[in-house]
Each structure stands twice: as structure tokens, then as C-alpha cells.
Amino acid sequence: MSKTAALLLLTLGLFSLPAYADKGDCAVIVHGIGRTKAHMAEIQEDLEDHGYAVLNIDYPSREKTIPELAENLHPEVKKFLKGRKCKVHFVGYSMGNLVIRAYLSKHAPKKLGRFVMLAPPNKGSEVADFIGDTAAYKSFYGPAGQELRTKLDYDILLGKLKGDVGVIAGDRSIDPISSFVIGGPDDGKVSIESTKIDGMKDHITIHATHTFITTNDEAVAQTRYFIENGSFERETGK
């Protein structure tokens, strides 16, 4: 049901808001390199439908370094949180997770909630190692693209990990060339091993590709489940 239709029915007394509609928590969503906030729309909609106030940020992902991009987020997040006393959760996709991590190292909110990482290159990307020096790669991905290599020390570049972190990795690929370069279980861009990070609270692998993990129904559901429970949902006995 659209929000307009729900509002009309609510006005006519034919529809009531669900019990979860006044969650009182906030969520900040950050897309990956070369993407826009539209790529995160399904996660935004799911969280909003379950009572979260959501800021889905657009930012110039190919124009600056990751720490500089993190600073770009601050004015928008600060404006979004003004007057709110909510616990603040974060959701990132791909490089957006690294931007969030850099942001939290300097601007972590007082009431920091949980942090869900979707397909994060937490140990860099073997693909960036392989083609990072090419003119085409440098032109398209810009300064941040150079900071996706596996040999970088992210603790120095981004700061120490903060908050309760849950990682969702994919194990399906639609990019055989990149998968060949990676050389192990991967989502077509990032190896499953590279998604892992010291200090994470939980990690789960789902049947999804890197490109489409943000629209995968399980990923969307698991994102909210971790925010609400601090762990991912698993079948009994698994």
C-alpha cells in the first residue's frame, strides 16, 4: 500500500497504523561507489515501514577520498538528527561501509545503535589490486577507488571499528572475470573472506550477488533483524 493511500484510509478511519510505526529509532543509509541513494531504496522503505526515521544519503562517491567523503556526510547527518533523541543505526553497501566506518571514528553519535554492512570490502578488493592502475579504473572510480586495495591498513585510514557490527556477504556472481581474479568464494566483486572484520558481532552469507544484494529480500529482512536483535536470523539448529 502506498503512503498516500494509507493516509487517505487513515483519515477515513478505515485503516490504523501498525504497532511498530512509532519505533523511535533512526537509521542512516550509505550507498556504494558509483551508486546513488536509489540503490538503497528497498532497505529504506522496509525500515520506514517498520517505524524508523531514515536518512538515505547521496554523496559524490567518486570525487574524493574515503575520509573526505565521510566528512561530507556530517552536515547531512547532523541536520537529520537535530531535535531527535533517537538511537542511530547505520547501514552501508560496499564502499559505503568504509565511509561509515571513517565517519564513526570522528562523529559517532552519543546514542550509537547497530551497524549493518552489506557486501563490505573490509580487507580491500582483489579486483582493485588487479585493475587499479589502469586509466579507465582511475577515471571512473577516482580517489576513493585507490583506497580499495587489499594492502591498505584500514585501521589507520578509517579508524577502529565502532558499535555492534553485523556483516552480510553474498556468494553468487554475475561477473566471471572478477570472480576469476578473486579466486575464491565471492559475490562477483568481493570475496566472502574480505567481508569479515575483527570485532564484528555476527556474519552471514546469503545467496546474492554484489550488485543486487541491496534489493535481495533476505538481505533486506536480515538488515532489519540485526538492527532489532543484534544478530542475524537463522533456522533452528543452524
Describe the structure.
The chain contains ten helices and six strands, in the order H-E-H-E-H-E-H-E-H-H-H-E-H-H-E-H. Strand 1 (26-30), helix 2 (41-49) and strand 2 form a beta-alpha-beta unit. Helix content is 39%, strand content 15%. Helix 2 (41-49) crosses helix 10 and helix 3 crosses helix 4. It has helices at residues 3-11, 41-49, 66-81, 95-107, 126-131, 135-145, 154-158, 176-182, 192-195, 217-229; strands spanning 26-30, 53-57, 88-93, 112-118, 164-170, 202-206. It has a single domain, classed as Alpha/Beta hydrolase fold, catalytic domain (Rossmann fold, 3-Layer(aba) Sandwich), CATH 3.40.50.1820. A six-stranded parallel sheet has the order 2-1-3-4-5-6, with helices on both faces. It is of the alpha/beta class and 238 residues long. The longest helix has 16 residues, at 66-81. Residues 15-22 have low confidence and may be disordered.
Rough shape? globular
Biggest sheet layout: 6 strands, parallel
Please report which band the strand proportion falls in: under 5%, 5-15%, 15-25%, 25-35%, 35-45% or over 45%: 5-15%
Q: Classify the helix fraction into a percent range.
A: 25-40%
Oligomeric form: single chain
Task: Note the topology.
Layout: H1 3-11, E1 26-30, H2 41-49, E2 53-57, H3 66-81, E3 88-93, H4 95-107, E4 112-118, H5 126-131, H6 135-145, H7 154-158, E5 164-170, H8 176-182, H9 192-195, E6 202-206, H10 217-229
Parallel strand pairs: 1-2, 1-3, 3-4, 4-5, 5-6
Helix pairs in contact: 2-10, 3-4
